[in-house]
Every structure is written in C-alpha cells, then in structure tokens.
Amino acid sequence: MGLDFTVVPGYLDFILLGVLWTIAITIGAALLSFFIGIFFAVIALYGPWFIRLPFRAFEWLFMGTPLLLQLFLIYFGLVQIGIDLPAFVAGVIGLGLHFAVYNSELIQTAIIAVDRGQMEAARTLGLSRGQALRKVVVPQAVRDVIPPIGNNMIALLKDSALVSVIGVSELTLSAQRAIGNTYRPFEFYVVAAAFYYLINLGMEWVLRRIERRIQAAR
Amino acid sequence: MDIDLMMRVYPFFLTAAWVTVQLSVYTALLGLACGALGASMRLSRHALLRFIGAAYVSVFRGTPALIQLFILYFGGPQIGIQLTAFEAGVIGLGVNIGAYMTETIRGSIIAIDKGQREAARTLGMSGWQTMRKVILPQSARLMIRPLGVNINALIKGTALVAAISVVELTYTAQRYIGSTYKPFEMFMLSGVLYMVIIYGTGQAIKWLDRKARIV
Fold it and tell me: Cβ of A80 and B59 within 8 Å?
C-alpha cells in the first residue's frame, strides 16, 4: 500500500474542526495553568504548614508521574466519586493542573527574586500582606517569568494531543477518526503533525510579541 | 483505599515497571546517539548539514511525540517499515528526545570559552583534535545535568507507548482501571513505581555530576 494524499482534502473541514478544538483546549488549559500556577506558588511560599506540606506532596506526585497517567486518574477518578465531567472539561483540568505545577515552580522562584524592599515598602504604606502580594509582588514576579511560562505553554500545546485518549475530539482524535474511515494512517498523521507545527509557529510568534512588549514596558 | 486489591495486582505492576525501565534505557541510548549526531550537524562547517540538523530539531520539537509515534507505528507499514510496538516505541521516543538532546549537547559545546579553541589551534592542533582533547572533555561535564533533565522527561514520556499497546506501567494501570474501576489505587501503584524509577535515575545523575566536577 503506497501513499495517497488525495484522500486528505475530503476530510479537511473535519480536520480543521479538530484544529479549532486543539486551540480551544490549549488556550483553556493555558489560562487555567497560569492562574492556578500563581495560586499554587503563593500557597507554597506563604501558606500555613498544614496546607504547605500536603501541597508539596501533591506537587511532587504531579511532577514525578506521566501526564497520561494523571489524565486517566482525573477522568476516571472523578467518575468514581460521582462527578461525570465531559471529556473536554476533564482534559482542560488535567492539562491545566499538570502545567500549573510546573508554572508554580517558575513563579515561586520569581517571587523570591523580587526585591524584599518592595514588600516592606508596600507594608509601610499600609497595605495588608495579601494586598502587598496581590498588587505589588506577584505582578512583578509574573512579568519576569512570562518567557519560561511561554515555553511551558508550547509544551502544553504538544501534550494536548494526549487528551485524545480520553476521547476529546481534538486534532489527534479527528485524524484517528479519518483513518478509521480511510485506512490511511501515514497521510492523516502527517497532516495532523503539519497542523501542530503551524499552530506551534503561531504560538511562538505571539509569545515573541508578548516578550517584546514586556521588554518595552520595563 | 482498597489495600487488598493493591496487594493482589502489584506483581503485574512490577513486571510492567521493568518494561518501563527497559524502554527508558534503550530510548536514552538512542536519544544520546541522535543528540550527538544532531549536535555535530548543527555545529558543522557545511551549510547543508547545518540545515538538516536545524530541521530535525525544529520538526521533532515542533510536533507532538504521540503523533510521531503514530506515524512510525501505524503509518510505517505503508512505506515498508514493519516494527513491533516495543521497537516502534524505542525508535519513536528515542528520535524525539534526541532532538531535545541535540540542543542540550550543542549548548554545552558552545558554552566553552572561545579562547580555548583558539589556544588549541594556535598550539597546532587540528580542528578534530581540538574538539576531542580540549572542548569535549570540558563540555561533557556541563552536559550531565541538562541531559538528566531530558532523561527525566523521557522516562515520563515512555507512558505514551501505552497508546500503541506496549504493556508498560501506564498501559497496565489503564487496563486495571478499566477492569476494577479503582483509578485512585491504580494511580498510586504506578505512580510510586514511576517515582522510584525517576528518583533513582535522578540520584545516579547527581552522583555522576559530582564525580565529574573539577572543583
């Protein structure tokens, strides 16, 4: 059986729908991982010990096991405790939590790196600890950490392919469905890879622009 | 938590963990070979080789490893490549991680001070001698830690071959979740084994790094 790419155009709108879902899941999980990452970082640094310790264990568990395994846990585990989420939502939560842990590591380092004088000055001006964190320290830390978080988000895009195994109809699963009809795995997976590559290029372009704006703002 | 069930099924997880270890070792070796080749192409004098090296890194880092694996395993037979799932897993993951290792190795080579190369060339060493006797011994030390990070990612990445039904840890966990409906217990069993493998590898790399330190 040779190669025959002429079967691809007939499924192009189907594949493009998958592209849209991949972009949607990437944006959803990226936003979730960003905000939860900030929340995690603040907990890890300023939380009371009975929150900090279990959180460390959670972090350790999430960094030491494969994402695919975590997706199975979240998708099937929530069903076990009676929460039946749509696959898309489970996928966004799984990807979002996984990358939130990695983002949290970056943000923690950045928070520590913000000059202590900033916190002291904010407190002197009468801000509470929470206010000082929210309005003075965290915004500065986040600005410094945008480029490495951008790298994480590109990894997230590629890992979004994994949610096909829990049945989210994104690009990878769309390609699989087209293959189910045509028995042409090579052609459709190559096309899927090409689309991932294009989305990746687009993301890198957006990230470069954001980085440049941050540089200019400094 | 159903401890009884965990005690009953853990031997299957141990067998599966051994498969994960084998996958990781073969993949790491292939990845290092691809990384060394890729780095030497990216640092080559010939524009064509440089281009091939850059294209390799860009394509394999720019697309999901899962898709690369699928192209090789499911698409391979169409272009005359017949592989078992295990072989496809090792080759697919190895070539993928090789692209990341290419950048790691290249980074550690160009991190060596330019004066070192110039001094060696002035002393009459050839380009290859300079690389082998002056540059590489220094950059090899720099590489250990970042390559360790790649290998850590690779071990977790071996979970992907569950999608082409290699019976390793994640596949085993998935199968037992399906048959027992106890996702949490199965996650714990496989999670602990993954962390043992990753922690052990991490310690080995730290030890190597300490041994290789000059000061």
Answer: no
Q: Which CATH number fits domain A5-217: 1.10.3720.10, 1.10.240.10, 2.60.40.1080, 3.40.50.11270?
A: 1.10.3720.10
Per DSSP (E only), the strands in B30-145 are none
DSSP B3-50: HHHHHHHHHHHHHHHHHHHHHHHHHHHHHHHHHHHHHHHHT-SSHHHH
**Predicted pLDDT at A8:** 84
Q: Is the pLDDT of residue A7 over 90?
A: no
Closest Cα in chain B, distance from residue A38 (Å)? 23
Closest chain A residue to B170, measured at CA: A69
Query: What are the residues whose beta carbons fall under 8 Å from the beta carbon of B146, sequence distance 6 or more?
Result: B104, B107, B108
The pTM of this model reads 0.90
Q: Tell me the CATH number at B16.
A: 1.10.3720.10
Q: If you count residue pairs, one on A and one on B, with CB atoms under 8 Å apart, how many are there?
A: 117
Mean pLDDT of chain A: 90
Q: How far is A25 from chain B (nearest CA, A)?
A: 15
Cβ contacts (< 8 Å) between A70 and chain B: which residues? Answer: 187
Instruction: State the nearest Cα–Cα gap between B156 and chain A, in angstroms.
Output: 5
Q: Give residue B125's domain range.
A: 3-212
- Residue B165: phi and psi, rounded to 5, are 55, 40
Q: Report chain A residues whose CB lies below 8 A from the CB of B56.
A: none
Lowest mean pLDDT among A133-142, B47-56, B62-71: A133-142
Give the domain ranges of chain A. Answer: 5-217
Average pLDDT over every residue of B132-159: 93
